[in-house]
Design a protein that fits this description.
The complex is a heterodimer of chains A (239) and B (205). Chain A has 239 residues and is α/β, with parallel strands linked by helices. Chain A folds into two domains: 5-139, 3-Layer(aba) Sandwich (Rossmann fold), CATH 3.40.50.510; 154-238, HPr-like (Histidine-containing Protein, Chain: A). Chain A has helices spanning 13-26, 47-57, 71-81, 93-105, 110-119, 127-134, 140-148, 168-179, 199-205, 222-234, and strands at 5-10, 32-36, 63-67, 86-88, 154-159, 184-189, 192-195, 212-218. In chain A, strands 2-1-3-4 form a four-stranded parallel beta sheet, with helices on both faces. In chain A, strands 5-8-6-7 form a four-stranded antiparallel beta sheet, with helices on one face. In chain A, helix 2 crosses helix 3 (71-81). In chain A, 52% of the residues are buried. Chain B has 205 residues and is mainly α. Chain B has a single domain (5-203), classed as Serine Threonine Protein Phosphatase 5, Tetratricopeptide repeat. In chain B, 68% of the residues lie in helices and 0% in strands. The chains are: A alpha/beta (239), B mainly alpha (205). The A-B interface holds A 38-39, 42-48, 70-71, 74-75, 77-78 and B 35, 37, 41, 73-74, 77-83, 85-86, 120-121, 172-173. Bound molecules: adenosine-5'-triphosphate (ATP) and magnesium ion (MG). Residues 30, 34-35, 37-38, 78, 173 of chain B line the site of magnesium ion. Chain A: It holds the Pfam family EIIA-man. Chain A: Keywords: Transferase.
């Protein structure tokens, strides 16, 4: 199966490579290509490098591009204009790339991967994050999802018996599994809640081994989602 | 007698020379309200344009403009690359297959160039960008000869660039400075004025 690829467009080769490194850890089978810095190794953007990266990231399912600022957006936009199946998203670079990579790893299509990146801004329990991006990011996507959410979700309480709780790898496992289901999953720990598809939000809950989380779900596959979560936890997330 | 592909090449060589001459000035302007690379970016881009024009000599104005566009897009390395690149690309499309550009074609090319920059960067007049030089230039670009038309455009661009000094930037790097961007000229507006002045001087020869 070919997966959606990603391109990280940045002013700095080091920054692009670092973002790719972080994302790749959670999505080992996704092609994430850095396009950072100018051709001579300086700070800036390089259209040719972006076009080449786009080409490398394409394996038949499309490519999502994320960028840091200014001309990175412009060169990415120009590359997308001349490439079919490429999508530019206005999302925070690190969170957006990680969220998109996890979605792509789970086999999500181009639309859903782009959406996952956009949704990365919606980190529950993270007021600073939410505030910082509210003005600059297209949040129409996440609003429409919230509006479509029906009431009275099913809920289960899940004990975390593994040692590290909902840390990076378990969080990525959960998010990956939830991405594949047609359900809206919310994980609550104390006062904080997280979107079940968002690795970062799940990690931000800070739920550790020995804690309990409340998992609720709505949508056509809500029951499967709850069951999947319980199964993963019961297996200690394959720790 | 209109402006041929050869005349355009002459104008671009003059533009490259002007940019080289003002490289440090553009760097200094950008250092105050940006990241200090505008002079370097523009000089790298226009030097690459000279190399490209030496390597192949396109025989229509549209082909010259297109070569400039793709070179700037590839080589500039900052916002000025996609912005000026899109401008030259749109200008190239606007002049179609004309062998010589009459004054009306020049107006059309400048109008298309402005449209390209706005489409790419989404800046409006008053945002303290190169649009603040090119927009008045396009409106002033009138005349019975290329000489007159370009002289009027260059003068308007210079006035427009000067008028960016008190503005607060709302686009580009300088926008991160907010109020602190006021009191300094926008480097991109300055480079636009320099380019138009170089074109006007060639036309006056
Ligand atoms: N969105 C925009 N619309 C129009 N002009 C812009 C925009 N952003 C930047 N500019 C212009 O570009 C000039 C800066 O060009 P420069 O080559 O220094 O790019 P930069 O800002 O350093 O690029 P980067 O976005 O990579 O940081 C500014 O002075 C301004 O005139
Ligand atoms: Mg700059």
């Amino acid at each position: 199966m070919s997966r959606v690829g990603l391109v990280v467009v940045s002013h700095s080769a080091g920054l692009a490579a670092g973002v790719v490194e972080v994302a790749a850890q959670m999505a080992p089978d996704v092609i994430v290509v850095p396009a950072g810095g100018t051709a001579d190794g300086g700070i800036g953007t390089d259209f040719d490098a972006v076009a080449a990266a786009l080409d490398r990231a394409e394996s038949g399912a499309g490519v999502v591009l994320l960028y840091d600022l200014g001309s990175a957006r412009m060169v990415a936009e120009m590359a997308v204009e001349v490439t079919e199946g490429a999508r530019l998203v206005d999302a925070p670079l690190v969170e957006g790339t990680v969220a998109a990579a996890v979605a792509a790893q789970g086999g999500a299509d181009l639309d859903d991967v782009a959406h996952a990146a956009l949704e990365a801004v919606e980190v529950p329990g993270g007021p600073v994050v939410a505030e910082g991006v509210a003005g600059g990011v297209d949040i129409i996507g996440s609003q429409s999802i919230a509006a479509a959410q029906p009431t009275a979700p099913a809920e289960v309480v899940v004990p975390l018996t593994n040692e590290i709780g909902l840390h990076a790898r378990p969080a990525a496992m959960v998010a990956r599994a939830m991405t594949q289901l047609d359900a809206r999953v919310t994980v609550r720990y104390g006062d904080a809640t997280a979107d079940g598809r968002s690795v970062l939000a799940l990690m931000a809950l800070g739920a550790r081994g020995g804690d309990e989380v409340h998992v609720s779900a709505t949508g056509p596959q809500a029951d499967e989602a709850l069951q999947t979560f319980q199964d993963l936890a019961a297996r200690d997330f394959d720790e | 007698m209109g402006c041929t592909a050869n005349d355009l090449v002459t104008a671009l060589k003059a533009a490259a020379a002007t940019i080289e001459e003002h490289r440090v000035e553009l760097i200094q302007l950008d250092r105050v309200i940006g990241d200090g690379d505008h002079g370097e970016n523009m000089d790298r881009g226009f030097k690459a344009v000279l190399t490209a024009l030496d390597a192949n000599t396109p025989d229509t104005p549209a082909a010259v403009l297109k070569l400039v566009a793709t070179t700037l897009i590839s080589k500039v390395g900052g916002a000025a690359g996609p912005l000026y690149g899109t401008a030259f690309l749109r200008a190239s499309t606007a002049v179609k297959d004309r062998a010589e550009l009459e004054p009306a074609d020049l107006t059309e090319a400048l109008t298309a160039a402005l449209g390209g920059i706005v489409a790419r960067g989404k800046a409006e007049p008053g945002d303290k960008t190169m649009v603040d030089a090119l927009d008045p230039a396009v409106r002033a670009a009138k005349g019975d000869t290329a000489t007159e038309l370009l002289a009027a455009a260059a003068a308007a661009a210079e006035t427009g660039a000067d008028a960016t000094v008190p503005l607060v930037a709302r686009k580009g790097r300088a926008s991160y400075l907010g109020e602190r961007s006021a009191g300094h000229m926008d480097p991109g507006a300055r480079s636009t004025a320099l380019l138009l002045r170089a074109f006007a001087e060639v036309a006056a020869r």
